[in-house]
Design goal:
The complex is a heterotrimer of chains A (195), B (247) and C (511). Chain A is an alpha/beta fold and 195 residues long. Chain A contains six helices and eleven strands. In chain A, the strands form three sheets. In chain A, strands 1-11-6-3-2 form a five-stranded parallel sheet. Helices cover 48% and strands 12% of the residues of chain B. Classes of the chains: A alpha/beta (195), B alpha/beta (247), C alpha/beta (511). Chains in contact: A-C, B-C.
Chain lengths: 195, 247, 511
């Protein structure tokens, strides 16, 4: 196998492409960023098929409770909300399969695309991001960045082994272009902006 | 300014009126225009098929015919593209380089070189759909293209806009290739004809009476499809409209 | 099976992005038109794309849906493009970054290997598809894996991976809906992003009825998608290994990135204890500053959505898990040395060139008879087998739309022209083209012979340009009228009306 490694690298060196090809500097393209990113985030999230839950100041978790309308296990990965299924060090990825709702907190959000970033730190078990039928996500509005260039300046990329941008629920249009949510991952995704 | 007129093979054979209109139009601007009678072709059919070696003698003949002119003007963007960007089968002598850099498609010559700002003799009170040949659009950049994020512009529309009474019909897929594609039209006849039929259908839906273009080759293909389909559309080269043709 | 429809499965409305739903209105005819199949493959004989394209177009319902669906994607792409002021700058950057990385590919591959290994990823190197398959089989066998779930990967299509695993008794389950449809129908993907785009919903209903027991009379896309979800989930939960491809590989952090809309790559990677990623060596980019350029361009170019629903970053195995990356060459290092054709390695497999290609939209991706269809296929496929794919560069009008939608600015239409030259130069051109062009070249090089070949007043067919004239089949006239022949050519008009007025100075000059 090291034979193939050396052969491939050797062939690449032998077939080196001609000319100068310097590494371009990539700007952040964030000059036009609005001061309040919440509005743009919401608009982008809704375009991607996600929902924004309306906050309730006296009872912050009320919107989460109200969003849970179907019977079935609820797993919570946030201290603010009590689920009825606990994730322990023994929980296997497949154990999440029967879950109807997972309540998670996103590491941060991206206004440009309505994306939510989860790493293993927020997910506890990675499959809580996509094996449940529905996701309810808490997002601190202070943790919304403007665009993807800003997003990749964040520290999470050098800390986590697994990190995912989830932008709306699972989707497919593989049959005649008809959009269907919940192809393999979650069927719906709701976000509560909550510090 | 000495101008050599190149009349591509299609125009020569099937649409002499386009050649005549081009010649007369250029003369209206006081230019001395000559048509070297021993011209044949720009070499595109061979080059287009990959047969560069087979194109060499035709390219040599082209340079012999047109080497002495300040500008070479032709009512075909596709042939202009061949000369300017693809005439590489022969040694690139100074004469070859001169011919390649001085060959202009009629619309860009009027728009960019002569900078024409009026066609007082022209009047065309009809609803017209404009077709840009793909080489003319994307290689010569005669107009902005829908694929790119760029400021909209169109040299043929700018010129046609100076014609009295003209009305433009909008296509749903204005930049879609019509399927002519040179030798593609015979080697891949099935897809070529289907693309042509779809183009004609789009033109019909736009409510156009006339289709115009700075390339006869695309229109020959489209007109062939339109006739077979029984479509009531007329095809006219832009040179004729700009030269004052009434219908 | 009667899959219960969840109430979320309703059509989108309002501001919501609809990906492609706009063209999803039911077809007028409900008569199930049989699905046209792809190109006929006869060993190493040159693939006849036009023959398969003609059969696809003869299936008018299929052709109409295919064209409308892909054109819809092209328009959605345009809309996204207009939403991003720096679009053309992003394309320049993407092209420059890819060119830079390819110019130092050995350095970046070693850097990735070092960083990924440090994070606990086992990195393997495969010079071709066979070695790739053998490496993966060895990993699976040593861990007793009988069922593998995987997300879509064009590279594994190149490697003939599924067939190989079937021979070796490993069950492979595709988890992308389109790819799963194609797997169940024993057909290759017809498009790099939407693998079953050439199928009508009735075709899918018939495949699913035969394979997963859905109602053969129910061709509702929501129902069919739900059936697949329900049928696949137990397989996902019981698989012992998962496999993904990789869209981008970040050398400086040892990260690889997978983009899907269904979340199926995350399921494949995170549910079983073992994750294997097969990645072509051209997928490298330098660092995290470069990554957003591609993430911003990929889905906008492909589907006209700002980002894929899932953009997943893998930098190391999870606790208790195992992660392998197989870096595959399969002709790429050789392509790097092809002066005209190395820029094809910049491709990020977005499929925008296919969506915009007027030939592809009317032919169907399977007509190309190769792993890669459409414009990018025309310039990549001959690098795998120049004889078998020698006709493909002719399946183009060279209109240049592909080049201008390409997010990494591959000069696709110029490379198509270069391939034609290369093929003709290497004798890989069909005899009929060669004979016609040789004759045309000789006639057009001589004004005397040329003029003599244009006798007026005979049948119109005689007046067709030479490449048509020499084609005895008269393919021009099959669906098009032949132009009327005027009384005289321009040349004759000029000689008669103008030449006499000219001074005789030019008479002797042109011979």
């Amino acid at each position: 196998m090291s034979g193939s490694r050396d052969a491939i690298l050797g062939a690449i060196r032998h077939n080196h492409i001609q000319g100068e090809h310097p590494r371009p500097a990539v700007p952040l393209f964030d000059q036009a960023a609005p001061a309040d990113l919440k509005v743009l985030f919401q608009k982008s999230l809704e375009r991607m098929g996600g929902k924004i839950l309306i906050p309730d100041v006296p009872d912050p978790m009320a919107p989460v409770r109200q969003a849970i309308v179907k019977p079935g296990p609820v797993v919570s990965c946030v201290p603010e909300f009590e689920g009825d299924m606990k994730i322990t060090p023994q929980t296997k990825p497949t154990d999440i399969a029967p879950v109807e709702y997972a309540v998670l907190r996103a590491a941060f959000g991206v206004a440009e695309t309505g994306s939510l970033c989860f790493t293993e730190k927020q997910l506890h078990v990675n499959t809580t991001g996509f094996l449940p039928q529905h996701l309810i996500v808490l997002l601190d509005p202070a943790q919304i960045v403007y665009n993807l260039h800003n997003a990749y300046q964040r520290p999470e990329w050098l800390q986590a082994h697994y990190a995912v941008f989830q932008s709306g629920p699972s989707a497919t249009a593989d049959i005649e272009g008809v959009l269907v949510h919940g192809a393999q991952g979650v069927r719906s995704l709701s976000v509560l902006l909550q510090p | 300014m000495k101008v050599g007129l190149f009349v591509p093979c299609y125009v020569d054979m099937f649409h002499p009126e386009t050649g005549i209109a081009t010649l007369e139009l250029l003369e209206r601007f006081g230019l001395s225009v000559e048509y070297p009678v021993d011209q044949t072709c720009c070499g595109q059919p061979m080059t287009n098929t990959g047969c560069e070696r087979e194109a060499a003698k035709t390219e040599e003949l082209f340079v012999r015919n047109f080497g002495k002119y300040d500008y070479i003007v032709t009512p075909s963007g596709s042939c202009t593209n061949q000369v300017r960007n693809n005439m590489t089968a022969i040694e690139q002598t100074d004469a070859v380089k001169h011919v390649r850099s001085r060959t202009y498609e009629l619309v860009e010559f009027l728009h960019d070189v002569l900078k024409v700002d009026a066609f007082p003799w022209a009047e065309f009170p009809h609803r017209v759909a404009l077709h840009n040949n793909c080489n003319t659009l994307r290689n010569l950049r005669i107009a902005s293209m829908s694929e790119r994020r760029e400021e909209p512009f169109s040299k043929p529309k700018a010129l046609l806009g100076m014609v009295k009474g003209i009305e433009f019909a909008d296509l749903t897929r204005p930049d879609e290739c019509c399927g002519f594609g040179g030798t593609f039209s015979v080697f891949e006849e099935g897809v070529s004809a289907k693309m042509g039929q779809d183009k004609v259908t789009d033109q019909l839906k736009s409510g156009a009476e006339y289709v115009t273009s700075s390339d006869s080759s695309c229109m020959m293909h489209q007109e062939g499809c339109a006739r077979r389909m029984g479509a009531n559309l007329k095809y006219i080269h832009i040179a004729q409209i700009l030269n004052g043709a009434r219908a | 099976m009667t899959a219960e429809l969840h109430e979320e499965l309703t059509d989108p409305h309002g501001e919501q992005l609809d990906h492609g739903a706009a063209s999803s209105r039911p077809l007028k005819s409900r008569i199930a038109e049989p699905q046209p199949r792809g190109a006929k493959i006869r060993g190493n004989r040159p693939v006849d794309q036009s023959e398969a394209a003609n059969r696809f177009m003869a299936a008018t319902e299929h052709e109409a849906m295919h064209d409308a669906r892909l054109w819809d994607l092209r328009q959605k792409r345009d809309k996204e493009m207009h939403g991003i002021e720096e679009w053309e700058e992003l394309r320049n950057l993407a092209s420059g970054i890819k060119e830079h990385t390819l110019s130092k590919l050995d350095y970046y591959l070693e850097l990735f290997e070092k960083n990924a290994t440090a994070n606990g990823i086992k990195v393997h190197w495969a010079k071709d598809g066979a070695e790739h398959n053998a490496i993966v089989l060895e990993i699976l066998r040593s861990r007793g894996v009988e069922r593998l779930i995987k997300s879509k990967s064009m590279l594994t299509e190149e490697c003939g991976f599924r067939e190989f695993m079937a021979h070796n008794h490993v069950e492979v389950i595709e988890t992308d809906l389109g790819e799963r449809i194609q797997q169940l129908d024993d057909e290759a993907p017809s498009h790099v992003v939407v693998p079953a785009v050439h199928k009508l919903r009735t075709d899918v209903a018939s495949v699913f009825a035969k394979t997963i027991g859905s109602d053969p009379d129910n061709a509702d896309a929501h129902y069919l998608t739900e059936c697949q979800r329900e049928a696949t989930r137990p397989l996902i939960l019981s698989a012992q290994a998962g496999m993904t491809g990789g869209n981008f590989v970040v050398a400086e952090t040892g990260t690889f990135v997978v983009c899907t809309n269904e979340g199926n790559a995350d399921l494949s990677a995170n549910t079983p204890p073992l994750h294997i990623a097969s990645i072509g060596i051209e997928k490298l980019i330098p660092g995290l500053n470069e990554l957003p350029v591609f993430i911003r361009l990929l889905s906008r170019s492909a589907l006209g959505s700002p980002i894929t629903q899932y953009t997943s970053h893998f930098r190391g195995p999870r606790e208790g898990g195992e992660m392998h990356v197989v870096l595959v060459d399969n002709g790429r290092s050789e392509r790097l040395g092809m002066e005209k054709f190395w820029p094809g390695l910049k491709c990020i497999r977005c499929g925008a060139c296919m969506n915009t290609c007027p030939v592809f939209r009317r032919s169907g991706g399977l007509s190309y008879g190769a792993t890669y269809a459409g414009p990018i296929g025309l310039i990549i496929d001959p690098t795998f087998n120049v004889h078998k794919y020698r006709n493909l560069p002719y399946s183009s009008t060279m209109n240049g739309s592909c080049t201008n939608v390409c997010p990494v600015k591959i000069n696709i239409h110029e490379q198509i022209a270069d391939w034609r030259k290369t093929l003709a130069g290497d004798g890989e051109i069909s005899p009929v083209k060669k004979v016609m062009m040789k004759a045309a070249g000789e006639v057009l090089a001589s004004p005397v012979v040329y003029r003599a070949s244009l006798p007026l007043g005979r049948s119109a067919l005689r007046h067709l340009p030479h490449f048509m004239l020499y084609n005895k089949l008269n393919t021009w006239g099959r669906k098009r009228d032949i132009p009327e022949t005027p009384k005289q050519t321009f040349n004759e008009w000029y000689r008669k009306n103008r030449k006499s007025q000219e001074k005789s100075q030019s008479e002797g000059e042109n011979s």
